[in-house]
Design goal:
The chain has about 650 residues and is an alpha/beta fold. It has 3 domains: about 325 residues, Na+/H+ antiporter like fold (Up-down Bundle); about 120 residues, Rossmann fold, CATH 3.40.50; about 80 residues, Regulator of K+ conductance, C-terminal domain (Alpha-Beta Plaits, 2-Layer Sandwich). The chain contains 27 helices and 10 strands. The strands form 2 sheets. A 6-stranded parallel β-sheet has the order 3-2-1-4-5-6, sandwiched between helices. Strands 7-10-8-9 form a 4-stranded antiparallel β-sheet. Helix 7 runs parallel beside helix 16.
Length: about 650
């Protein structure tokens, strides 16, 4: 290796480590960190480093892995479930934003091809920033979170035609642009069909054979081969590398190897993608910005305000409430990483250049820097803009909870209807106890209600919602989710209204046990300590300790408030994400008139081939458990399916399309 190049790479890595660590320290997106590294290195000319052809060639691989990972996360079943938001709200947002952005750029003197590229890149929002911050704020399953993710899903799909059209616009000669576009679209359709067909017929058998050899190295090499082969194929057809990588991800997204593939490419993707964003930051010329700052500010304001208002208007037209619509608009009011991909493509093909490129690049970068604040305070802003709407929303929520409760008395209130809440509900139902559950996940509430469970959408930390759930006549209340702040709010409301009511609280460990007990919890159940008690009791029984003695030990631990178990050596424990891919769960599907499953029996559908079981069928409000395989399904039937997430997606597609 050339000594000078080695020094450049060493300095680049050192700057990247320092800046990205600083961004993570303040919980800011790492994308902004990489962009900042590019700006610093490019403007300060550290060690003579520049975004030359070799650097950009490596960064192109980062784009390839980004597009592959997006394709890998693509879910046909999720898209079909959210088709109203995806193809309604999402399509309208991308179309109107592209037309408006292109029209503005054209009016300011840009060429039609360059204006089209600008409109397309400004229409994109940041999938990485939106999804991560909504997840951190527990807002992915909220109404505005689902609207935002539906729009982002369509934006991911909309990148494909832009990747086809932009190079075609650059390659078209005077008077032959239409012919170039037509040829590019035809080639795009043919290459897409060929790659998807190859993936369907060849990839799954290939990876099954490779997986049977139980060689991680061979599996990883095969993944890299598939990615780069698909990217090379589209490039040879005159299209972009990124398009082939996206299609390769789609090919593997419906296979059982999806999660292993995602884990294997993560190191390559993160490093090369970081290099791509560094090269994007290096394109920014800070010396030119003082003369252009007013244009940058105008474009930044237009981008943020226009996107927020457009999504607000479109969401309102689709039936969303004012506050929900505004929150979705604020979440999406920024440029995105796909915008940088399209901008780099347009710059490389000379469709955009000079001052226009600097203005667009700076405005998109600043909008992404502003995005974390807008997303973090989207609820605060919406409540102050539409205070009356939020009051009406609470009233409507309160009425829905009252209807769900009906005339229940001496019942149980379950706060949170996740896995733990549902298990509690099943035990209560088997013993004949009435209960009402409150949850803030609209999809979970809808599916549970379709299955016949007494669940309502509502914030159990609000006094009005608890009163609507019949707190004054309840027999007990259970907080089934692990959220300390929300638990303390609920306990404060309960102790103010019903101080004598028994309240059981779930928590992860014993860290906040005394605080919850002081707040009024009758019993606090730490998950880790209860798990250790159960494991210890089973082990003692295996070792021959009498059952009476084991029960006495467990009772003593409970009576002593887990004091014996509460000291431990933490070591280097870190909280990690659970393996959702293999976790079996329930899912409901409502059959419509045109669905394939209508007028067919469960035996004919053979859902067991997907690893899915039909646990119940609800028809006209009557729920039948363990239905016969000869049961003929009808329009309006609600099927309660049980299986792993990927298996459930395939089964749902089979029910809808055959």
């Amino acid at each position: 290796m050339v000594p000078g190049l080695f020094v450049q790479i060493l300095i680049l890595l050192a700057v990247a480590v320092l800046v990205v660590a600083l961004f993570r320290r303040f919980n800011l997106p790492t994308i902004l960190g990489y962009l900042s590294v590019g700006v610093l290195v490019g403007q300060l000319h550290i060690a003579g480093f520049d975004a030359g052809d070799d650097t950009r060639a490596l960064a192109e691989f980062g784009v390839v892995f980004l597009m592959f990972s997006i394709g890998l996360e693509f879910s046909l079943a999720r898209m079909l479930r959210m088709r109203g938001v995806v193809f309604g709200l999402g399509a309208a947002q991308v179309l109107i934003s592209t037309v408006a952005g292109a029209g503005l750029a054209w009016a300011l003197g840009m060429s039609p091809a360059g204006a089209f590229a600008v409109g397309g890149l400004l229409a994109m929002s940041s999938t990485a920033i939106v999804s991560k911050q909504l997840a951190d704020q527990f807002e992915l399953a909220t109404r505005h979170g689902r609207l935002a993710m539906g729009v982002v899903l369509f934006q991911d799909l909309a990148v494909i035609p832009f990747l086809i059209v932009i190079p075609a616009l650059a390659g078209g000669i005077e008077g032959a642009v239409a012919q170039s576009l037509l040829m590019a679209l035809i080639k795009g359709i043919l290459v897409t069909a060929a790659l998807l067909a190859a993936g369907h017929w060849l990839l799954r058998p290939l990876f099954r054979a490779i997986a049977a050899g139980q060689s991680p190295e061979l599996f990883m090499l095969a993944v890299l081969l598939v990615i780069l082969t698909a990217a090379w194929s589209t490039q040879q057809a005159g299209l972009s590398l990124a398009l082939g990588a996206f299609l390769a991800g789609m090919m593997l997204s419906e296979s059982e190897f999806r999660h292993q593939v995602e884990a294997d490419i993560r190191p390559f993707q993160d490093v090369l993608l970081g290099l791509f964003f560094i090269t994007v930051g290096m394109r920014l010329d800070l010396a030119a910005l003082p003369a252009l700052w007013h244009w940058v500010v105008l474009l930044l304001g237009a981008l943020v305000v226009f996107k927020a208002l457009l999504v607000l208007l479109l969401a309102r037209l689709s039936g969303a409430q004012q506050g929900v619509a505004l929150r979705a608009g604020l979440v999406l009011a920024q440029g995105g990483e796909f915008g940088f991909v399209l901008l780099s493509l347009a710059l490389d093909h000379k469709l955009i250049g000079g001052q226009a490129g600097q203005i667009v690049l700076a405005a998109v970068l600043l909008s992404m820097a502003l995005a974390p604040l807008l997303i973090r305070y989207n609820g605060w802003i919406a409540k102050r803009v539409f205070a009356l709407s939020y009051g009406n929303s609470l009233t409507q929520m309160q009425e829905e909870v009252s209807v769900t409760r009906g005339g229940m008395e001496n019942h149980i209130i379950i706060c949170g209807y996740g896995r733990v809440g549902q298990n509690i509900g099943r035990f209560l139902e088997q013993e004949g106890f009435d209960f009402i559950a409150l949850d803030l996940d609209p999809l979970r509430v809808r599916e549970a209600r379709e299955a016949g469970d007494p669940v309502s959408y509502g914030d159990s930390a609000r006094r009005a919602i608890l009163e609507a759930a019949g707190l004054d006549k309840a027999r007990a209340l259970i907080i089934s989710f692990n959220d300390l702040a929300a638990s303390l709010k609920i306990l404060a409301q309960v102790r103010r209204l019903r101080p004598e009511l028994p309240v059981l609280v779930r928590t992860r460990d014993d860290a906040e046990l005394e605080r919850l007990q002081a707040a009024g919890a009758t019993e606090v159940v730490p998950e880790t300590l209860e798990a250790s008690l159960m494991l210890s009791s089973h082990l003692l029984l295996i070792l021959g300790v009498p059952m009476s003695k084991v029960f006495r030990r467990i009772r003593e631990a409970h009576n002593d408030r887990y004091r014996l178990l509460r000291g431990f050596f933490p070591g280097e424990e870190r909280a990690g994400a659970q393996a959702e891919a293999a976790r079996e769960q329930l899912h409901t599907v409502t059959l419509s008139e045109r669905d394939h499953a209508v007028e067919r029996t469960l035996r004919e559908l053979q859902l067991e081939q997907f690893g899915v079981m039909v646990t119940a069928v609800r028809r006209r409000g009557i729920r039948g458990v363990a239905p016969s395989l000869d049961m003929r399904l009808q329009e309006g039937d609600v099927l309660v399916l049980y299986g792993a997430p990927r298996a459930l997606e395939r089964a749902e597609i089979a029910l809808m399309r055959g």
